[in-house]
Amino acid sequence: MSGGLFGEAAAPAAPKEEERRTKLYGYDSVASQMLEPYGEGALDTLSLEQIWQGTVKGNKRTAYHSHLAADQSSDGWHVGAGISMTSAALLAAIKNFKGEDMKNLIRPDLYEKVLEEVTMLEPVLLALNFGRGSAATRDTGSFREAKKAKLTVSGNVTENSGNMDPLKAAGDFRTWLVKERSPFRSLLFILSGNNSYYSGHTAELVARAAVKVKPMTEQDFIEAVKARMTKPDQTQGSKAASSDGTGLFNA
Questions:
Q1: Residue 240: half-sphere exposure toward Cβ, Cα within 13 Å
Q2: Distances (CA, A) of 231 to 59, 225, 226, 239, 240
């Protein structure tokens, strides 16, 4: 402190508490918050009560981690957006489930059991998926353009709903969510693998890109592992204060 040199300094103004936002970005979602990029996530170890508690708590920036947690009476639009985004996520899972790879991977009787359920569920989700208006936002990151290509531009309700009334679909979707047992939900649980399949797949892709594109030779790998096994050189960084008073008194 320099108060002894210049006199009593005015007390700093108390920082203004920032209002937590209700506009959510991808990294605010429960899926992103619970992702463990280098191992197993904890999501599947939590009860529904624990998941909801964390969802509504939010953090210092966001009021919550899902629009489903918005106030029903004063902000129904955001709650509806949460239902729409949930539908979009499930539709993406259904699309990939219907691929030939999954059909070859799963026992035929189990595949048919899940297929029967998703065939009933898909038109319900289509009626509730109103798209995402953020597809036209400015690209701000190196991976954003690739993600934008996968988004569905927000459209008119009747363009998305097919032959089902979205209001009826809303009731049908809730009925499905409160079912005690669901073959499709069980499949999602198993395939999530505590997020280890996705994190492992991503880690392998990045490592393979490093080998082929960076590129990294076998010797590079060996030298990197040798370096990791040794203590880092202290000259590479310092924990000393970035400034002090020696320039004034020891010149």
A1: 7
A2: 36, 12, 10, 16, 19
Measured CA to CA, the distance from residue 172 to residue 170 in angstroms comes to: 6
Name the DSSP class of 153: B
Query: SS3 for 80-140, per residue?
Result: HHHHHHHHHHHHHHHHHHCCHHHHHHCCHHHHHHHHHHHHHHHHHHHHHCCCEHHHHCCCC
* Residues near 239 by beta carbon (within 8 Å), at least 6 away in sequence: none
pTM of the model: 0.76
- Residue for token digits 């937590």? 20
Task: Specify the amino acid at residue 249.
Answer: F
Could you read off the pLDDT tens digit of each residue along the chain, which spans 251 residues? 555 444 555 556 655 567 899 999 999 999 999 999 999 999 999 999 999 999 999 999 999 999 999 999 999 999 999 999 999 999 999 999 999 999 999 999 999 999 999 999 999 999 999 986 544 444 545 566 666 555 443 334 434 546 799 999 999 999 999 999 999 999 999 999 999 999 999 999 999 999 999 999 999 999 999 999 998 766 555 555 555 555 555 55
Q: Please enumerate in sequence order all residues whose Cβ is within 8 A of that of 192, keeping only pairs 6 or more positions apart, or say none.
A: 43, 44
Cβ–Cβ < 8 Å for 30, 48:
no
Answer whether 126's CB lies under 8 Å from 150's CB. Answer: no
Classify residue 55 as exposed, middle or buried by CB count within 10 Å of its CB (0-12, 13-18, 19+).
middle
Q: Where are the domains of the chain?
A: 77-179
Tell me the Cα Rg of the chain: 26
